[in-house]
């Protein structure tokens, strides 16, 4: 029998299994490190209908591990390029690439319901939570995955059968006090955060008065700094307005503006902080930097970073790309070299602003001048100019704070990129292993789903898989699936879909009555209150008038959860409905009976390890076994006596340790206390 592309798959899955995969509709979210490997593996396994969605573009740093991309593809859409490159792996498969954001309104609950399974290959926490919620709402099985260096994990998620992505709280990104970042940095990461989040925004972004939350007001309310310190920091922030205008003024030489910024940030502001004597009683005093003094004391090597006095004077920004290739990412720069890099990056960013170039280095339609001054540039770890600016600014900040006394100061360009870009180490081998595990889990989940025939899926044979490189004898560690968390705010809710033809013609009251009838409910959209039993002003307003569009969720909190029951939340997903259909249709209809759940405090009484059970167990222990109490009391008294005797007789800690050698005798009495006799 001749061998075909499906010969091996047929031997493992059987002809019916291969045919099932060819009919399966898969949504794959993410076309990065895991996504490239996953697309290849799903195609070779025989999946016939794959929708690949990613909003990212290809960067040159992706080429070492994302094998579907080549240098010619840089700046192209990851989803489109990956689909075109991988299509020959399985010519009979239909790949639909989408260059977009999975959180867009077009990808609502109804859109998710068309797929048989969703495979996540994301590295973004917010996007993963969104996909998890959409899968819970649509009832679509999800295979969640992730890698970090040599570690990896694959988790199958099915609503009401396994815990979802949000059942376990995720660590929040670490933040730093505003006053520490702006006035008293004590670690390199403080300087990097200051350069990326504060200085970059003040000069090239929105600015303190441009609509951003006033962080200083929040710091003042929380009592982070004294009144004098907050007042000084406010004055420093206001002084940036003139520098922002100068960066966008074509009549000003960019290098002169760079010198003004350096003088203000590293000399004038530091001297102003030194004037607050109380701040430096227990801290190291910062050291102001002078432009001329730094260059005179530590002149940069001409082969390392070329320094030209005519930067920005010529047409098109002379020096914009020259010399960048000789700045090694792994080499620490001297103080003077950081100053030169700071000036060079500032000049390049100023020329981009004047040329109408916006965030991310994409050339805009403006012609510069004052029109280009309205454009903004935000930090991007793959943007050479912004990375150079943050690297140099952070290292110079470290120099003023006295964090490093050596000639070579601060962090290398690569280290700054890791900290500022929140880079998680990625290894191609780990990505390939995880991609294979995702496909295996998907095949098993689809087989279990088919066997259920529309009933409850049997998850008995499935496991969570973890890659554990520190255990060579068991590199793949399976663990049992965990049931849903009873307090999860995502998978424990009841989900329904409201198919709406026109959000401008369906009112909030019609939607609520269509879902829960006349039950008393409180309606929320995200954290925004829309109505409650005592406030019904919005019930006659349309969803569009309230700003509720397709893809949004309205939370209906049922306040008639039953006697002693906990309030039940019904999540209503707003989905697009064809033009020829009625204005509103609720799925499922009628609403299934809402579950009765015990209140949290009542459940805690029954949970093992709760304070009620612990105290009750201790009480029963001494009540039912009074003969053990003398042993317990004798052991405690003996231990106290030996400790007191050792401390009185000994002077050094070593002699205390020797004196305590008789303490095991007390354990005899404690052991006797807990023996079953």
From TrEMBL:
Matches recorded under SUPFAM superfamilies: Activating enzymes of the ubiquitin-like proteins (SSF69572)
Pathway(s): Protein modification; protein sumoylation
Transmembrane region(s): 629-647
Keyword set, alphabetical order: ATP-binding, Membrane, Metal-binding, Nucleotide-binding, Transmembrane, Transmembrane helix, Ubl conjugation pathway, Zinc
Region (Disordered): 207-227, 299-324, 589-610
An annotated Gene Ontology molecular function: SUMO activating enzyme activity
Pfam family, one: ThiF
Cellular component terms (Gene Ontology): cytoplasm; SUMO activating enzyme complex
Residue ranges constituting the THIF-type NAD/FAD binding fold domain according to the UniProt record: 11-450
InterPro entries: ThiF/MoeB/HesA, ThiF_NAD_FAD-bd, Ub-E1_IAD_1, Ub_act_enz_dom_a_sf, Ubiquitin-activating_enz, UBQ-activ_enz_E1_Cys_AS
Keyword DNA-binding: no
Active site location: 179
A Gene Ontology BP annotation from the UniProt entry: protein sumoylation
Biased composition (Basic and acidic residues): 209-223, 300-311, 599-608
Similarity annotation: Belongs to the ubiquitin-activating E1 family.
Designated name of the protein: THIF-type NAD/FAD binding fold domain-containing protein
Source species: Cylindrobasidium torrendii FP15055 ss-10
Organism lineage string: Eukaryota, Fungi, Dikarya, Basidiomycota, Agaricomycotina
